[in-house]
Amino acid sequence: MGRVCLAFAGLVAAWLLVAAPAVAVDPANLPEPLPAPAPAPAPEPEAAQAGPRATPPGRAPGDVRRHVSDARVFSATSTCFYGPSIERGQARHLCVNQTRGKLIDTAASNLAADPGVARLRLSHRDLRAFADSLMRVSVADEEIRPVPDGTAVRLTLRAETPAEALESHLAAFAADGKLRAAALAETAKRDRLAAEARMAAVPFGADREFAAKGMENRMREDASFAARRVVPGMSMSQVKELMGDPAALKQAVIGPESYVCAGYGRIWVVFRDGLVSCLRTRLDYVDRYATDCHCAGNYTTILKND
Length: 306
Fold this sequence. Notes:
This protein has helices at 2-19, 88-111, 115-120, 124-134, 166-175, 177-200, 205-229, 236-243; strands spanning 72-82, 136-147, 150-161, 248-254, 257-264, 267-272, 275-280, 302-305. The protein is α+β, with helices and mostly antiparallel strands. The strands form 2 sheets. It has a 5-stranded antiparallel sheet. Residues 1-24 form the signal peptide.
């Protein structure tokens, strides 16, 4: 019975809420409306990114043009040999003086073919002085080799003459007597130093020294090549095709066998009856054979053997 009363009371309360008149609200009591939000600023236009520059007509994209100098370039090389009384630094200085004289001659010969120079009909002496006054000289390559009986020097000098100012230099040289006289005096001094350097040098000494060094290098290369490629059992024609003609040749007959020893620099190829029997670094004399052309004796000198 209590539950029925409670349910009935709930229904009555709900009906009263629905049927109640709406309560009037005073407009003065309403809260003020919030101000309208400010309009968002318009986005600034992005800065235009720098794009690739337009390629000029006639040039491929990425093509880099370099300025090519019109300077004339000359070079001269000397090999100089000086005795033990001349120190290394002095030997180099003397060889520079000697090479500078050759460089002046090279530059003068080249400039003589220039139309502007040819029109002035300069004497050979004046032409050398003019060329000398223009040159910017530097050392391009050098090798100094002390040896027991002196010092060998091989030196290359390089020079440039400015082609763009040739006409103005030439006009000044021809018109200004003092300038020409100073250039002639300077070149005469260089020629004197070059002559003194030639007098101090041992004739052909440096050529022999550097030629011997080159021969030694070739001998070492030949020996290395032979050690790799020549093997026992190869015929003489096969070895000759690989190595060429030997620098030295020996022959021997030991009993029924014939031996031929072919020298290739620091290595000997020993043939027995026409075929390679061994390779050795030097021949070894054996008394019982009365020869050194064989594959016996000191085996530490033998690189390959059949």
